Amino acid sequence: MRKMIAALVLTIAFGCASCRQDTTRAAPATVPAVPQVEVAAVKSEKLNTTDRLPGQLMPYESVEVYAKETGYVKSIAVDRGSRVKQGELIAVLEAPELTAQRAQANAAYRSTESQLAAGEAKLTADQATYLHMSAAAKVPGVVAANDLEIAQQVARSGEANVAALEKAVQAAQENLRAVAQLESYLNITAPFDGQVTTRYVHPGALVGPQGGTGAMMPIVQIQTLTRHRLVVPVPEYDAASIPEATKVSFTVPSYPGRVFTAPIARISRAVDIKTRTMPVELDVRDPGAELNPGTFCEVSWPVRRAYPTLFVPASAVASDLERTFVVRIRDNKAEWVDVKTGARSGTLAEVFGDLNEGDQVAVRGSDQLRPGTEVSPRAATGN
User: Hey, where are the domains in the chain?
Assistant: First the structure.
């Protein structure tokens, strides 16, 4: 009897387990939920914001001073950091060849002057002889006609000789002046007010004109102190509406917390094909010579558009290794739209692409939201 009861219990237990397995197999499959996506409308407005751009201070004038004539440095009166005035003597060169040329030119000039003086004296005598014979010829038989003709030709020849000697004297004088001018080049002077930033040579060094004999290096480099060019590479998207003469603020690392200003002075009007930027210069006046050329600056650059462009939340712009895009939601389905980004305006990013004002885009762009994915859009808070 006990064995029969145990067998009955086991039969009932296996039956219940089988029922549970059949019930599990018969349960319907779970349908995945449609993801909800926060969306925002594409806006159209005129850009008016300020962007942070890097800039570099450059000297308004900068020159490496070369000698105009080949020579040896006899003395140099300046060094790195020396402040100079326009026309101030920087260095003195010596060139024995020029000294010899000057002596030779001076001797040639003196010689032609002497020849001119002799020619003029002879001309005076010949003219006097001709006049005397011409007066005597008025009495018949005193002077032969042939002798008078010869005296006249001698006087005319003397006039031509004096004219040639005058031109020779003038040429010799010009040659002497030219050599003297070359000698003046041995005194090297500052081309403008500024500061010596680099000294390249010492006494005894051979120097000369750039590209000529002995032009192994310049003598010094001079840069302006109180005026600078602040060069700002402006992205090509911001290059169309640059406000000329507008004052722009900038900061430099050497003066933390201090803000400088300068007007927009020079616009190149040409985009660099390598960097896709256009150099723009600010004219920086620095009477106290506080700023140093070569310093990197952070410029608060005004960005304006004369026409409306499209904006989306900055978080809506996504990118992968191949493209930059936003996810547009149309008919409850996701689609990728390739865009190029422009400036930032607060939390919005300027975009250029196949978008229209009012299009709905995912607030959080991601490559995980694949094209064609069905979604349930809902307006983002604040949009």
Answer: 37-46+307-379, 51-59+224-306, 62-93+194-223, 97-184
Q: What is d(CA 376, CA 38) in angstroms, rounded to the nearest whole number?
A: 9
Domain 51-59+224-306 has CATH 3.40.50.720: no
Identify the pLDDT of residue 382.
62
Q: What's the start-to-end Cα distance of the chain, in Å? A: 79
Q: At what angle do helices 145-184 and 96-136 cross, to 10 degrees?
A: 160
Is 354 within 8 Å of 340 (Cβ atoms)?
A: no
Is 80 exceeded by the pLDDT of residue 313? yes
Return the C-alpha torsion angle 202, 206, 209, 214, nearest 10.
-140
Higher per-residue confidence, 226 vs 130: 226
Query: By C-alpha distance, which of 380, 251, 247 is closest to 302?
Result: 247
**49/351 Cα distance (integer angstroms):** 15
CA 124, chain centre distance (Å): 68
CATH number of the structural domain 37-46+307-379: 2.40.420.20
Task: Go through the chain and tell me how many residues it has.
Answer: 383
Which pLDDT tens digit goes with each residue over 130-165?
788 788 777 777 777 787 788 788 888 888 988 998
More confident residue, 28 or 206: 206
